[in-house]
Design a protein that fits this description.
Blueprint (H helix, E strand, L loop, with lengths): L7 H6 L4 E6 L4 E4 L1 H5 L17 H10 L3 H14 L5 E7 L7 E9 L6 E10 L4 H17 L1 H7 L5 E6 L4 E4 L1 H7 L3 H4 L10 H17 L9 E6 L5 E13 L2 E10 L1 H15 L9 H18 L3 E8 L2 H8 L1 H17 L6 E6 L2 E6 L6 H18 L4 E3 L2 E3 L3 E8 L6 H17 L5 E3 L2 H22 L3 E10 L4 E12 L3 E3 L1 H11 L2 H20 L8 E5 L2 H5 L3 H12 L6 E6 H4 L3 H13 L3 E7 L6 H4 L6 E4 L1 H6 L4 H16 L3 E5 L4 H10 L3 E3 L9 H4 L3
Parallel strand pairs: 16-17, 19-21, 21-22, 22-23, 23-24, 24-25, 25-26
Antiparallel strand pairs: 1-2, 1-5, 3-4, 4-5, 6-7, 6-10, 8-9, 9-10, 11-13, 11-16, 12-13, 14-15, 18-19, 18-26, 19-20
Length: 701
């Protein structure tokens, strides 16, 4: 015969199979004639590639196009290339061909040639395979016939039994399985068993069977597990699944034993509910509370964030219970539970210890002690307000108030029982102080919170007693001519004297007082614009009003601005609203929408404290602004600090490039003004020109 290597090409070229040899990278280094003659658009899962190209790349491209067969081929080829298995086979129907045909692929490592692999493609007419298919179906039919005698027995079992072949096709199903899944047996016989699985598991099952056909390894055999099934109506339910394997006529058959465990799961959930939740209110019980308290202590120690325990007791509950009856008392406890859940975050825990005692566990509070106490007090105040509305008990209106004891903690120094004891002591202090109140275990925190509560009370009284004032600080142009002013709020408290905004604005935002206070500022500013419009000396002035984050977050903020303009008759083109960039980034799209609507009214916007926030230039250019204000922190340092000077110069350049007027605030010296003039600044505001004064004193400046 001579040297067989000389005849290798001739021998391989006589084969109908398309043969190629590739190296470990996937590059094709040899193809036979059948491969070379194959059409580029063959309808095969992987397009035929030529000598020197990469077979693995072709597989990946086909997979990315969404071809499921190509995905299977790509995965199988990669497993062989990586050495995970020695060979891989796959067969499927050709797509896009005029005559129906079957495509078979075999990929394996080349014997005695490390690093090289042989791939064989073969296509055959469906007609030519009919006899093979019929033979296979006859074999399956023989298996089915052999089980007819036992089918009656299987149909009387409570467990569902389904048999499938190595391709996942259902061969038999007993009556219990039909009942479990809601199908008649004739509706699923011959179908892929993946029909009975939810979508995420269907692909896994197909992959599992493909892996089994490639390797012979059956991972699920003898491993009972709990999975989800899908009924005919599309509902998902839990099942217990156990799979075994037999061989019939040299073909593997998988037998699945199935139990519907829906009721068992319900029973388990009920047992867990009884063990960890209060049967009357559905809240966490003492056992679950102790578990979560333990977790909170560990989490607090790790993150160094405070947490808090609030113990709540209903005032005079025993009297109500005795007078109206225990049924009414139970209804009250249930309604209390609902109100408490509505006052806290989803991550917080509300528990019932028993009787009329409730516990609230707050986690992930501020690392700072006083801030954490303030956050806790806010929740306590919300609870007290929630109890102001009467409870309806079968037509009886009933009032109930709580006494709340609070302890704030960090780390795991105190045990759960010790924390509850501290909260209990604080709760009795709240009762001793007159009930319907909250009290902190820590005397220092209690004093701070009481001072905060007193300040909030006085803030509300100040609004009712007309104690707030607007002062005005002039704004001048580069020639020193006044073109407007900024409205600055002050609180002339009867008890505290003149109070600056830094003292009361943050608390106003936390307590919601900023809403009526902000409306008062807008109304008062618009009235002042009307007064200035009647004087030729001030008719052209604009008036800037600061807007808080809480105000712009209000759903009806646009309406409040429009209402102030309507009620006063002020010229909207003279009103300018000042916002900070840091407050805008909280909800960009919502803020932009509201700003656009307000601009449509004729009102303009100024960006205050520019340079101190974190907004990007891409975001900045989207804002409907007319003015940028250089923050006074840069103005104060620009003559001594080159960095501040460069920042001020950049701000002026940036503002002008965006077509905006640039005004500097906090200008106190002539030198600062001259430097800003050299930079091209358009306007100035600060003590060099005027201090904030009342409306009567403005014209005297």
């Amino acid at each position: 015969m001579g040297d067989p290597t000389l005849n290798r090409d001739a021998i391989l070229d006589t084969l109908d199979n398309m043969i190629a040899v590739i190296d470990r990278t996937g590059r094709i280094i040899y193809v036979n004639r059948a491969w070379r003659d194959a059409a580029a658009d063959s309808g095969l899962p992987v397009n035929i590639t030529s000598l020197g190209t990469n077979y693995l790349t072709a597989c990946r491209k086909a997979a990315l196009s969404g071809d499921s067969d190509a995905s299977i081929i790509c995965e199988g080829v990669q497993r062989v290339l990586k050495g995970a298995v020695n060979h891989f086979s796959h067969d499927s129907l050709c797509q896009g061909t005029a005559t129906p045909c079957r495509f078979t692929l075999h990929f394996s490592a080349l014997i005695d040639q490390p690093g090289y692999f042989v791939v064989s493609h073969h296509t055959s007419s469906i007609h030519n395979e009919t006899q093979h298919i019929e033979t296979r179906q006859n074999d399956k039919g023989a298996f089915i016939d052999s089980t007819r005698y036992t089918q009656a027995i299987l149909d009387n079992l409570l467990e569902g039994i389904i048999t499938v072949d190595a391709h996942g096709i259902i061969l038999t199903v007993n009556q219990a399985a039909s009942d479990i899944f809601g199908y008649r047996s004739d509706e699923i016989l011959g179908k892929n068993v993946a029909l009975l699985m939810p979508p995420p598991h269907r692909q896994h099952h197909d992959d599992y069977l493909a892996y089994y056909r490639q390797t012979g390894e059956a991972r699920m055999i003898g491993q009972p597990r709990e999975v989800d099934g899908v009924r005919k109506d599309g509902s998902t339910f839990p099942i217990s699944l156990s799979v075994s394997r037999i061989v019939h006529n040299d073909e593997p058959i998988f037998i699945s034993l199935i139990r519907d465990i829906t009721q068992r799961r319900r029973d388990e959930d009920e047992i867990r509910r009884l063990a960890f939740f209060d049967s009357l209110t559905g809240l966490a019980n003492r056992r679950l509370l102790h578990d979560r308290l333990g977790q909170a202590r560990i989490s607090s120690s790790r993150t160094q964030h405070h947490a808090a325990v609030m113990l709540l007791d209903l005032d005079h509950f025993k009297t109500l219970n005795d007078s109206l009856g225990h049924d009414m008392g139970d209804r009250l406890l249930q309604q209390v539970a609902e109100r408490l859940k509505g006052c806290v975050r989803e991550t917080d825990t509300v528990a019932r210890l028993g009787g009329d005692e409730f516990v609230i566990l707050l986690e992930a509070l501020s690392p700072r002690n006083k801030d954490a106490a303030a956050q806790t007090e806010t929740i306590a105040s919300k609870i007290l307000r929630a109890f102001e509305q009467h409870f309806s008990l079968n037509g009886h209106n009933c009032n109930s108030t709580p006494s709340i004891g609070i302890t704030v903690f960090i780390g795991d120094k105190d045990s759960a029982d010790h924390l509850l004891k501290k909260a209990d002591i604080a709760m009795y202090q709240a009762k001793a102080a007159g009930r319907n109140s909250a009290h902190f275990y820590d005397p220092a925190l209690q004093a701070a919170i009481e001072a905060r509560i007193q300040l909030e009370r006085e803030l509300r009284e100040g609004l009712a007693h007309d104690e707030y004032r607007l002062l005005y600080q002039l704004q001048v142009n580069s020639e020193g001519v006044t073109f407007g002013a900024e409205a600055l709020i002050r609180w002339q408290s009867e008890r505290r004297g003149l109070v600056t905004p830094a003292t009361f604005i943050p608390l106003s935002e936390e307590t919601g007082l900023i809403r009526p206070l902000g409306q008062w500022v807008l109304d008062t500013a618009c009235k002042q614009l009307v007064a200035w419009a009647a004087d030729n000396r001030t008719a052209h002035w604009t008036l800037s009003v600061n807007i808080s984050a809480s105000q712009i977050a209000q759903a009806d903020f646009v309406d409040t601005v429009a209402q102030a303009l309507r009620n006063t008759g002020a010229n909207p083109s003279r009103l300018k609203l000042e916002l900070t960039e840091s407050m805008l980034v909280r909800d960009t799209e919502d803020s932009l929408d509201k700003m656009q609507s307000i601009c449509a009214l004729g009102v303009s916007f100024s960006l205050d404290n520019f340079g101190t926030g974190y907004s990007s230039l891409a975001y900045l250019k989207r804002l409907p602004l007319d003015q940028l204000k250089i923050d006074q922190s840069f103005v104060h340092g620009m003559l001594e600090n080159p960095n501040d000077a460069r920042i001020a110069r950049t701000m002026v350049t940036l503002g002008h490039s965006l077509g905006l007027q640039v005004i500097a605030e906090g200008v106190e010296t002539v030198a600062q003004r001259e430097f800003l003039l050299q930079l091209g600044c358009d306007g100035f505001q600060g003590y060099l020109f005027s201090k904030p004064v009342n409306a009567d004193a403005v014209l005297a400046l």
